[in-house]
Amino acid sequence: MNNYLAKLWEISQKPERTIIGLMSGTSLDGLDLCLCKVSGLGSNSKVEVIKFTTEEYSANLRNRIRAIQSKEQIPARELTVLHTELAGIYVSSILKALNEWDIDPEQIDLIASHGQTIYHAPSQSEDEEHATLQIVDGDHIAQKSGIITISDFRQKHTAAGGEGAPLAGIFDEVLFRDQEKHRLLLNLGGIANFTWLPSIKSGESILTSDTGPANTLINEAMQKYFDKPFDEGGKVAASGQVHSELVRYVLLEPYFRKAFPKTTGQEDFRLEFIENLMEGHGIELPKEDLIASLTAVTSQSISRAVDEIIGDVKFECFVSGGGIHNKTLLKDLKKRNLKAEFKDFEELGISADAKEAAMMAFFANELVAGEGFAIPGVTEEKIHLGKISLPG
């Protein structure tokens, strides 16, 4: 027997697994590394975050990824090279973090790598397959690190008939659903998504969906007009004026009229789309006003979704993702969602920044040791998310 298959079997039988979850979102802030202790299986899973750090991408790497991300035509060689090259960057980041944490790599059971989303393509008709592509080669991570690696979590979701995103509903229900309280878990990455968790007592079903852009349009505009990767603290948005007509035109786009649940990506929301819309309606704006308006698009599209899904019910709201650091965005969300009691994600036992990387560790644990999960609206049969790469 392959020695690593034997090791995988041993890992699957352990009462607790030590897993490094890796996440890099469409905002391209960097690589999140979350060291987790994961115990239990299925609905009895427990995830404890031991360490967390973010390794920021260099400006050059960020630009290289951005050049092939969500584009209709890209250089095939660059896509292929980055698929392999990013694996080496990931492993270097892992070894650096473990050294700083004074942890021997041999203590790590699994690496759980989400990869870098390059293109997200939900089907446009019943005859078309859902598709999504995340690069970063799991085999290279495993070979370079010597650690069994789980990757490609979204592919089984699409293979089973799902859209590949968002994946958070299963994780959120297992770890964060409350017996008495209604909760909304809102993630502000490049794209905004939420999990609505009505109380267990209510007997209502959960719902997970994207709502539209979160940081993607803001970041792209900041890069182009301010030569900065993002609007730090929402300061630029706070200095501008919202152009209400532009916001209204954006929110009239067909995506916002689709029924929930739904998914989207940067392919639908690029700065070029906004600029074409402005040109078509004769809108010229100071660059600060553009950032303020794009921030308003995010807050208003989320708030409309919340109103449609939740209505008049009071609920707790926990926000995660890079958007939590945008004070202007959060202020507007709170103003527009008066029925929500906004709470610190830390109260749920996991930091807002670490949540998505910890989620990868959760799915890796289930793939290796559990029975998998049924995916509401996709399949009643239990499936496992992820693919296994062995070092040897």
Structure write-up:
There is one protein chain. The chain has helices at residues 3-13, 59-68, 76-100, 138-145, 153-159, 168-176, 216-226, 235-239, 244-251, 271-280, 287-310, 327-336, 355-369; strands spanning 16-24, 30-39, 46-56, 110-121, 131-135, 149-151, 183-188, 191-197, 207-213, 315-320, 340-343, 373-375, 379-383, 387-389. The chain is of the alpha/beta class and 392 residues long. It has two domains: 3-164 and 354-389, 2-Layer Sandwich (Nucleotidyltransferase, domain 5); 168-348, 2-Layer Sandwich (Nucleotidyltransferase, domain 5), CATH 3.30.420.40. The strands form three sheets. Strands 1, 2, 3, 4, 5, 6 and 14 form a seven-stranded mixed β-sheet that branches. A hairpin with a 5-residue loop joins strand 1 (16-24) and strand 2 (30-39). The termini are close together.
The fraction of residues assigned to DSSP E strands is 15-25%
* Number of helical regions: 13
CATH superfamily of the largest domain: ATPase, nucleotide binding domain
CATH fold topology of the largest domain: Nucleotidyltransferase, domain 5
Beta-strand segment tally: 14
Q: What are the key terms here?
A:
Nucleotidyltransferase, domain 5; 5-stranded mixed β-sheet; alpha/beta
SSE layout:
Elements lengths: L2 H11 L2 E9 L5 E10 L6 E11 L2 H10 L7 H25 L9 E12 L9 E5 L2 H8 L3 E3 L1 H7 L8 H9 L6 E6 L2 E7 L9 E7 L2 H11 L8 H5 L4 H8 L19 H10 L6 H24 L4 E6 L6 H10 L3 E4 L11 H15 L3 E3 L3 E5 L3 E3 L3
Parallel strand pairs: 1-4, 4-6, 7-10, 10-11
Antiparallel strand pairs: 1-2, 2-3, 4-5, 6-14, 7-8, 8-9, 12-13
Helix pairs in contact: 3-4, 7-11, 9-11, 11-12
